[in-house]
Specification:
With about 350 residues, the chain is α+β, with helices and mostly antiparallel strands. The protein has two domains: about 5-135, Jelly Rolls (Sandwich); about 150-355, Orthogonal Bundle (Hypothetical protein af1432), CATH 1.10.3210. The chain has helices at about 5-10, 20-30, 85-90, 110-120, 120-160, 170-190, 200-205, 220-225, 230-240, 240-250, 260-270, 290-305, 315-325, 335, 345-355, and strands at about 30-35, 40-45, 50-55, 60-65, 70-75, 80, 95-100, 105-110. The strands form two sheets. It has a four-stranded antiparallel beta sheet with strand order 1-8-3-6. A four-stranded antiparallel beta sheet has the order 2-7-4-5, with no helix packed on it. Helix 6 packs antiparallel against helix 15 and helix 10 (about 240-250) packs antiparallel against helix 11. Bound molecules: fe (ii) ion (2 copies). One fe (ii) ion binds next to loops.
Amino acid sequence: MDFEKIAPIIRQSEIFSGLNDKEIISLCSLAEEKEYEATEIIIKQGDEASSFYMIVEGTVDVYKEQKGNFYYIHSLEPKELFGEMALVDDSPRSATVKAKTKVIVISFSRVAFHQYLAISSDAGIKILKIINKRLYNAEKQATREIIRLQDTTIFAMAKLAEGRDPNMGCHLERMREFALLIARAFKERSQRYLYMDNEFLDLLYKCAPLHDIGKIGIPDHILLKPDYLDNEEKQIMRTHTTLGAETLQKASQKPIDNYFLDMAICIALSHHERWDGSGYPQGLKGEDIPLSARIINIADVYDSLTSDRIYRKAFSHEEACKIIKENEESKFDPSILDVFDTIEDDLISIKNRFPD
Ligand SMILES: [Fe+2]
Ligand SMILES: [Fe+2]
């Protein structure tokens, strides 16, 4: 192994950056230079992990294989490492790494590295600390990615349910923005609900689009009727609250706490309840109506009033606020309604940002 050539390269890598000259030289004695042609597989998912690699020249692509499909994860460039899990455990490779171009790597076998740890324990601890940090960051990144995927799936599901009604346009996009806006303003004004923390706001934003998920069970001739509903049809339409809650309830039957589904169920069930007890499906009154559902209710009514309907034109922002405040005050939580004046500009800008 050419120490003069390898040592400066090794020194550039993050995980070896804390080593002194002597430690680097003894590490070089374990290194092996290898070359791969473009498209050649360097490590294969599921294989035994026995070495880790540092790229000297070229680019590699990392893929995950799941049920016969390959998913591209990312590319790695010179100085970057891959396969470093081989240093800390011997579980099979979690991904496939393929040469994108002609690639030169320096490889270190686990066996040799363990010998190195025995001789230079200080250097070994420095390296393991950095690997630990890298794995922690990678895990955080993966968790963020999973959450992002879940959020996208949930919203897509809600959109699909809402999509049967072509008149709804960007209602769901606006609903989550309105809900967050109202909740934030309310939180700033009132210390009444201590559980109203950032997690609550985040959940409310994600759950808001699911408020009408139960409409998926309402027949087309009622949901899409281009006219006022008769009494019997109204009763069927109202079941979208219980249908939605039941559907989400089925999904939540797990032995773990699921705050997301708990809030989504409250919203689906109670977003048509009224402060004075005249709403449905349970006729809940005042603070018996979950706070999340009270917020969604106001957001929903505001959006409905300011949107065109088959049977009427949209009201202006001013008209809608007047209707909500003067004619329906008994139907909304007055303390939430109080914040409406403070967020008027933002309500209008959300409406403009997501037109139908
Ligand atoms: Fe609804
Ligand atoms: Fe709605």
